[in-house]
Structures are given as C-alpha cells and as structure tokens.
Amino acid sequence: MSSPVPIAVAMSGGVDSSTVAALLRREGERVVGLTLQLWDQTRLAGRHGIPEQPKAGRCCSLDDVYDARRVAEHLGIPYYVVNQQERFERDVVRPFVSEYLAGRTPIPCSLCNDHLKFDQLLLTARSIGAERIATGHYAINEFDPARGRWILKRPVDRAKDQTYFLFGLKQEQLARTLFPLGRMTKPEVRELARVAGLALAEKPDSQEICFIPGGDYKSFITAYLEEQGETLPDSAGELVTAGGEKMGRHEGIHGFTIGQRKGLGVTSPNPLYVLQIDPATNRVTLGADAELATRNLRAGRLNWISISELTGPMRVQVKIRHRHEPAWATIEPEGDDAVMATFEEPQRAVTPGQSAVFYDGDEVVGGGWIV
Fold this sequence. Notes:
The chain is an alpha/beta fold. It contains seven helices and 17 strands. Helix 1 links the parallel strand 1 (7-10) and strand 2. Helix 1 packs across helix 6 (186-195). The protein is globular. The mean pLDDT is 94.
C-alpha cells in the first residue's frame, strides 16, 4: 500500500534516479523530485588548461538539471532544485584540495554522500513534508529485527555496486532511505526507463568527478587556489628509492598518488611506481610494483553499520578501492576510533585518504578512512 506521505527522489538527471522516480510513481507513491545544484561547471573555465566548455559525461551539470526537470514533467511530479554550492565547496571541494596537498588521495564521492546526499537532502525532504528519500544507488537496504539495525548490502548487479561509497551512512539515514534498484541489473533499469517513456533511457552513465574536468586534478587544484587568491604551497622535494637513493626531484607532492606509474619525472630501465609520499619531508619514494604489496592498513574515522561497535578481532573482507576485489583480513580495534586490518594475502597500493570498507558476505559491516 502506498503512503500518503511523499517520497523525495534525489534526481541527478541520469537514467538510474529517473527510473527510480518512474518506478515509485508506477507503484502509486506520491513522489517529489529534488536535485542538488552542487557546482558551477563554468567555474575556473580557461584557467590552467581547464576547458572553456563543460565536457559531456560529467554529473551535476546544467544539462543534467534540465534532464531531471524534463523527467519530472513527463511523470507529472513536483520538482525542485536546491542550491547547495556553498556547502559542497566547504565539505567536499576544500577537503579534496587539502588532502592532495597533504600527500593523500581523497574520495569526493564518499564525502558528498556523507555531507550532502544523505544529510542535507534528508533535511530538505523533511522541509517539504517527505519523511523518506529514494536514490538511484545500486545497494540493498533492509531492517534486521534480530539486531535492531538497518543493514546495507551489496546489490544484485555487482558491476554497479556502490556500497563502497555509502559506508558512512548512519542508522537514522538508512532508516529513511530507499534503494529501489538494489535488486535489479542495469539492463533491467534501462528497459524500465524505456517502458516508462523516459527520453534519457539510453543516456550514458557519468564517468568523471563532477568538478574535475577531464580528470586533471592537478590543474584543478592550481586553478582553484589561484581563484581563491591563494598560492600553491611549495612541496617540492626529492624522488628517492626505498633505500634512500636520490633519483631526482619533483615539483610538489600533490602531483602523486600511491601506485602511480606515469608522470614520475624520471627514467628507468624497469617500471617505477610511487610507493610512499611523506608530507613531512616532501619525499616521494619510488620502486618496483612488487614493493607496493602490504599486509596491513590502519583506518580511522570509523562508521559501523551491521554492528554497533567492534569489540574484538573480526574476520571480514576489506575493499580498499572502488574497483578492488574485497580481500580477506582480520580487523582489530586500535584506540578509540581506529582499526588495524591484517590481510591474509598482501594487497597492492594501500592508499592513505581512500576508504577501507569491511564486508561480511554481502553485508557492509562498516568502514573508515585509510591513514
């Protein structure tokens, strides 16, 4: 039975969120479309090689807002655009820049989920009388009465699994969120969009970070700081081997990430990779691919989902990148808000600033930020 209380659908202008709106509408739910306006795509255009015109395939563009509005009109549902550019800059863009300048590799999509899509969006939904939101994320969310907790699970379509970016969701957020696509495959979603008569049924998925044109984060950081009237910090330093042998110099640690191979600024008869970035000395350590393997990681700023806390060792699968196949490890508490994970097999390129997400089968146990 449908609820008289409306459901707010987070509409990004893509096929997934549009299909969610159509699906709920077909089921007789009262639906309101909400789009968060997060970033001016023309901002920084022309600075340091940033294109004058936004490239297709980036989410949250003006074209996406237009597409979302068109879908709302087609479905006959109310639609609102909520300007959150100031908060997005404060909670996502600024931390992104700061993390790179500190020699870490951030995940802006997780920050956006934590601070905006499942925080501010819920507040906005409530202000218009909606108690729940629905999104186009591929994940499963259900309540377990035995544990008295909301449980986040990996979706049917593993190729579209987005739980890695959702580990920061709190119980109160999960309780008010619907993921209608969790038990569907992407081809099934597109077919539903066609049946619903959505003009964007064949629209390609967005592939880029919404505020990074062409994925060139170094140019973005330079252009952003220039716009803010700030200078790029001098973090030039040495390129060294694991044994401390000098191989050359670099212009700034923000230009590197763990596991990077290209653009190192040195030549070698054998392939070299970034093994370590030391912000205290500005040293970047290079070495062979085999030297990237490690059995341990430490993660902090934790959030637990399927359990209320970690009280002792727990065997889980740990995912350290979005495209990483979860690997078996034992996690143990370390201090008030950190865990140490020990892998059963060495893992390649554990990267500070990325997330470590813990799985028990399909369930997301929780996660944290690699330090």
